[in-house]
Each structure stands twice: as C-alpha cells, then as structure tokens.
Design goal:
alpha+beta; 4-stranded antiparallel sheet; 11 strands
Length: 163
Amino acid sequence: MDLKEIQNLIKFVSKSGVSEVKLETEDFKIVIKNTPDVKVAAVPPVAPVVSQAVPAAPAPTQPAPSERKAPESTPESAKEDDSKYVTINAPIIGTFYRRPAPDKPPFVEVGDTVKPGDVVCLIEAMKLFNEIESEVSGKIVKVLVEDGTPVEYDQPLFLVDPS
C-alpha cells in the first residue's frame, strides 16, 4: 500500500463518519481513528488477528460521477421518466457486483423480469458477499451502478418498472 492509497483511505474514513478502522496485511497494520488526537498509527505486524477489509480507496471519488449525471439531463424529463420506476437500493455499504463470479453471467440484465426474493446482485462488505434480493416485482429498466464499484448505504442500484 503506497502513501497515496493511505491518504485516500484516511479521507474515506473521515467522510464516512466511522470512528475507527483497522487494516492489517502480512507487511503492515494500519489503525485509523477518527478522533481529534490520533489520525493514523502504523505498527509492525503482531500476532495474527482477523483481517478486516475496508472499501477500496476510490470510494470517495466513485459516487461523485453518478451524482453529477442526474443534473446534466433535463430536470423535467428525468423526473417524469424516473417517477414511474421503483428503485432497488443498497442495504449496506460495500462493493457492488452484478455476477456471482467473474466467469458467470449477471444475476439480472436490463429487460429481465424480477419478483420479490430474486437475487439481483452481490455487495461485498468485510470479505462477506451479501446477496441482495429484489423487494419489488417488475422489469429491470436500468442498472445504475458499474460492476466492481463501491456503493453507499441506500444508494440506488437498479430502476424497476413495476407495471
């Protein structure tokens, strides 16, 4: 991990509101505390401890482009088009994956019909892959997130036409 990645991780932790993050590999251990007196402490490795994965450093920069896309479209047409659709939102923070494995097809494609309980994607959080199920029935109209990118809590993932 280089200095730039560490700096990006610090920025992500400070923006996320988390009070403490620990990241440990074979080479190093980093503890980032979001308190006024301690920001980063680097310690040589000690006895093995359960490693915790933190969303990759690009997290602060990735959501910004998707947030900028909405104002670029004409506000009236966007509100009219999206108002008839239901969104499937991220229930947790993590990394969004459309496929169960890199060599497998996506769970859902645009045009597919889903019903409550159908798995639509995976979100990896702390090395655990969480299946995200649809809570609505309808047809997938749009995938709002790129595969392999970080997502935030309650971030829209899919647009579904319930009709």
